[in-house]
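Re: that chain you flagged

S.,

Sorry for the slow reply, it's been a week of failed gels. I finally had a moment to sit down with the sequence you sent. For the record, here it is as I used it:
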Amino acid sequence: MTTAAISAPAQRAPELLGQTVVVMGGSAGIGLETARRARVEGADIVLAARNPERLKEAARELGALSSAAFDASDPDSLARFFDSLAGPIDHVMVSGAGPRYGRPLDMDPEESRRAFSERAVLTLEVARNAVGKVRPGGSLVLIGGTGGRRITPGYEVVSAVTAAMPALTASLALDLAPIRVNLIAPGFVDTPLSARLLGDGIEARRAELRAKLPIGRVVGPADVAALAVHLMINTAVTGATYDIDGGQQFVA
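Prediction finished late last night. Pasting the C-alpha cells below so you have them in one place:
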C-alpha cells in the first residue's frame, strides 16, 4: 500500500498587487472596510472624504499613498482631486453619505432637487473624471441599495434613486468601456451612519434582522467590502447590479 504525498497548498498571491484603488467616502463604514480589504490584496490606497480628522486617521492606519478632504458633490473640487492623482489608477469606489428620507412634497425645491439628483450627479461627475485616469480594464464600483424597492411612505426618494442607479450603471458600462462599471445594492448595513440615523433604535433593528434574515445575522461593512474588491478583481463583470442584504428584501 502506498501513501501519496500530500503537498501543502501554495500561498495565494494578493490579487490587487501593484494596483491603485481610490475610495471616495473612505474614512468610515463601507468605504473604509473596502480600503482595508483592497490593502490586504496588495493595492495602494488613495482616500477621499469630507471629515478631515477621520480621514487622517484612516490614511495613517492604511499607509495610504495620499488622502484628500473635500466635498465630492462640488464638481470643481472633484475635478481638482482627480487632476492631482499621479499616474494611472486602477479602481474607484464611490461610497459616502446615505440616502435622504422624507416625503418629497414636504421638501422645499432645493432639498428635493438634491435628494433626487445628488447620487446620480456625483456618479456622473466621477465617471467623467475617471476617463483618462482609470486604466482600460479598471473599474468603477458604485453603491446603491435595495431598501427602497418597496414603496413606503417616507421612502419615495429612496425608491426613485434605487430604481435609477442600475440603469445608470449599465449605461456607464457602455459609455466608459473598457473601464468596467458595477453597482452594489446593500440592504441594511451595520455602519456608524446607520447607528446615527436610528439612534436609540439601533439595537432593536439589529435584533429584528438577526431574527428575520435567512442568514441569521446582520450584514456588516466587511461583507460589502468583500464584494467590492471581488468586482475590482473579476475583469469579466461590468454593467451589473449585485444585491447584498442577507435576504432582507424577501422577508421585510
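What I noticed first: The domain at 20-194+218-247 is CATH 3.40.50.720 (Rossmann fold).

Talk soon,
D.
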